Amino acid sequence: MISVSVPGRVNLIGDHTDYTGGLVLPMPLDQYTTITGTTTDEPTWHLRSADEDLPVTIALPVIDPSVIEPRWGRYVAGVLSELHVLGHPVSGFRGTVTTTLPIGGGLSSSAALEIAVARIALSDTSHNLSATDLALLCQRAEHRACGVPCGIMDQLCIASGKPGSATLIDCHALSVTHIVIPEDLEVIVQFISQRTLLGSEYADRVADCHEIEKLVGPLRLATDDDLGQINNPRLHRRARHVISENQRVRDFAQAIIAMDYESAGEFMQQSHWSLAKDYETSNEIMDQAVQQLLTDPTVLGARITGGGFGGCIVGLRRRKDS
Ligand code: GLA
């Protein structure tokens, strides 16, 4: 019997910056997706999920993960297909998936499933996949299986994260710096509403960024001075978000290290309104939830987290007993 548990992640700050090679600061959660089962001699993967009506049966090797039904199996098939492309032998497997993460809740339940599948599939081989290689493999799997052009944040945070620390990721260099969240701070995560990035405006935002980069070059290197070259008002606002958000990640990380919690909270506020007004990935329900959380005087800052269009909000609070 093999069992693998993989955490979800919450992003403290730095949203919609990863797919232009910018900065992000997510942290692994203590909510997990677990796969338990046994390898078999059959050339198939058979998984049941406690949260899905139908099980999935995937014949090996997987050539096209995007046609697998039911759809949740595509994340599994995507990873198995990428392992096949890399020449990693994959045994048959029969098992079950359970999760304490909200599915489609913006806490990377899909990336957690992908990494868990990869760890199970690689558990009986001697492999030399680093955390970064594993994350890249799972990112490619998600692109191919589900067509969502996601960045590297979720998979790399989950593959390389440490409990209690945030992962400052430079999504161009793919470097990770662990930043301990001080004991007197509490990270609050509230699930507000279901969402899916599939068919959402996520891909439109990625396309907007490509358009901007045709005008000003790499967004990760852009500054406010470059905004003058962007005449289209929508692209101007999108660029303003990305440029300012990259700076806020740096500033927030510095504020946490310096234990300047008021400033850290302020950067989260600025991030939320930048996402809401310039990037347009929030909505009224999420804005209200953020404002509601801020009515608690111990809350330093709050924002929508992850891909947006629903999902979760994240807040930072001084612990009452500190
Ligand atoms: C989703 C994607 C990530 C990232 C966030 C927004 O979670 O999977 O790659 O782009 O949205 O920051």
Task: Please describe the structure with a list of short key phrases separated by commas or semicolons.
322 residues; alpha+beta; 7-stranded mixed beta sheet; globular; binds alpha-D-galactopyranose
What does this structure look like?
The chain is of the alpha+beta class and 322 residues long. The chain is 37% helix and 26% strand. It has helices at 73-85, 109-121, 131-146, 153-160, 202-216, 233-257, 261-279, 284-294; strands at residues 2-13, 23-40, 44-49, 56-59, 92-99, 165-170, 175-180, 185-193, 299-305, 311-318. It is globular and about 60 Å long. The mean pLDDT is 95. It binds alpha-D-galactopyranose (GLA). Alpha-D-galactopyranose is lined by residues 15-16, 18-19, 150-151, 153-154, 306-307.
Summary of the model, kept short:
Helix content is 37%, strand content 26%. By secondary structure, it is an alpha+beta fold. Alpha-D-galactopyranose binds at residues 15-16, 18-19, 150-151, 153-154, 306-307.
Please describe the biggest sheet, giving its number of strands, its sense, and whether it closes into a barrel: 7 strands, mixed
Low-confidence stretches: none
Question: Rough shape?
Answer: globular
- Number of DSSP helices? 8
Counting helices, strands and paired strands, the structural category is alpha+beta
Q: How far apart are the first and last residues' alpha carbons, in Å?
A: 43 Å
Bound molecules: alpha-D-galactopyranose
Helicity level: 25-40%
User: Rounded to an integer, what's the Rg over CA atoms?
Assistant: 20 Å
Work out the strand percent: 25-35%
Topology, number of strands: 10
Order of helices and strands: EEEEHEHHHEEEHHHHEE
Question: Averaging pLDDT over every residue, what do you get?
Answer: 95
